[in-house]
Amino acid sequence: MAGIKNWFYAIDVMSGWFPITIWALVAIGIVVLLICQSRGESRKRFLKQLGIGLLAGFIGLAVTYVCSDVFLLFGVSLGWPVIIAIGVGVFLFAFMVAAAVMTHGWLRVLAIVMIPVTLLATAVRVNEIYGEYQTMGSLFDYSPYPHISALNLSLSTISVREWNEQAVAKSRNTTQIPKSGKLVHVDIPNPKSGFKAREALVWLPPAAFAKHPPKLPVMVMFAGQPGSPTRFFTASNTVKVLSTFAAEHHGLAPIVVSPDQNTEATRNSLCADTTKWGKAETYLAQDVPDWIKANLPVNDKASQWTIGGFSQGGTCATQLAPNHPNIYGNVLAVDGEIAPTEGSVDHMVEAYFAGDKAAYERQVPQNAIRNNAPSKQLMILGAGARDGESVDNIRKIGDTARENGWTVFRFAVSNWGHDWHAVNAVFAVALPYLCERMGLGNANVQFPTDSEVKEIS
């Protein structure tokens, strides 16, 4: 039974046999309905079904566009690939409903069966565009990783320089480490904040398992909202990129911690101390770093700590880092907002900050940067080129950071929008640079050239 469960959760919903099967079923259903209604009155019925589907699809396309790009009901534009996918999905759904009404016998049964299949096919296509869910397990936020208590981590650390010297000399300390890193989950305590966070996930590189591990850099990374700590790892390519780096650098790579910034998938804490959802900022800037420093083999210098994430998680990073420069020396954020957002500013001031507008304004990234200037921190910002609003956001935030002493890099990812594909492309370029900047390799490394990821001024 466990084997079947593991097989089911491991099914790739982005590529491979599953999405191909779903779309093949849709194609077969349409062809069968066409062939079996190709003559006489049946042909007229088929053309009516097709006409109803096309009309519904056009209306669905128009409504989706208005909701997405005119009224911005989702906070950001869905992007034309998603809008078109939804329009096609509405067409298929309406066509199958019309066929179910106008046909009889086994054709009606076929059309009825095809209705949920077309909905599933639409969902699969939209997910392919966003890259949000990679496997069946990620759909259910399945976390098969062991608890960190099952590991025997040593805090008897050495420097990275000593580690590299031992590795060259093939010391027992460096050779008896696992070949790959490990993901574990942990309930990070909240003594200072009382914030009711969900369990965090932690990725540990091979070097972390040595008897005398090196003092490793730290990355605190967030998924978006809706989302979860698990989602950051299951949707991103972070583990793959860091595993590759570790394999080429004697098992060295940053420890990556993905804590919960929102308490639930659909909540937005604004990553601030609020009267609505509790002290998220205190949790992320005090409780989480305190636990990391007390329990993991890490370097505690701010220059060795990066905070980042996607969408709302990226917004958190650009507001927390400038407000806590003694903790987070680097930012890696993709598709973040210009300010924490959950409704209008007036709504947030009243619902989250008990009418204290200054408390809200402190959380706006540009204000936080100015309020804590000058700074020598590093900021790497990315956005999908199709997400014009996010591109504009990283220009504005980056300009303010540069004006106040930060080192800033900004990247746009061609062919993608507000999605995990953009995140993965930026991370693949930025993570090796950050690793080496934080002392794990050549300190003079430059960003590699990439045909998809372009630096913007």
Number of helices: 17
- Order of helix and strand elements from N to C terminus: HHHHHHHHEEEHHEEEHEHEHHHEHEHE
Estimated structural class: alpha/beta
Q: What is the β-strand count?
A: 11
The helical percent reads 40-55%
Looking at this protein, list some descriptive labels:
single chain, 50% helix, nine-stranded mixed beta sheet, 457 residues, alpha/beta, two-stranded antiparallel sheet
What does this structure look like?
Helices cover 50% and strands 11% of the residues. The protein contains 17 helices and eleven strands. The protein is globular.
Write the layout of secondary structure elements.
Blueprint: H1 2-10, H2 17-35, H3 40-70, H4 80-102, H5 105-130, H6 136-139, H7 160-168, H8 172-175, E1 182-186, E2 200-204, E3 218-222, H9 229-235, H10 238-248, E4 255-258, E5 273-274, E6 278-279, H11 280-295, E7 305-310, H12 312-323, E8 330-334, H13 345-353, H14 357-361, H15 365-371, E9 378-384, H16 388-403, E10 407-413, H17 420-440, E11 453-455
Parallel strand pairs: 3-4, 3-7, 7-8, 8-9, 9-10
Antiparallel strand pairs: 1-2, 2-4, 5-6, 10-11
Helix pairs in contact: 2-5, 3-4, 4-5, 10-17, 12-15, 15-16
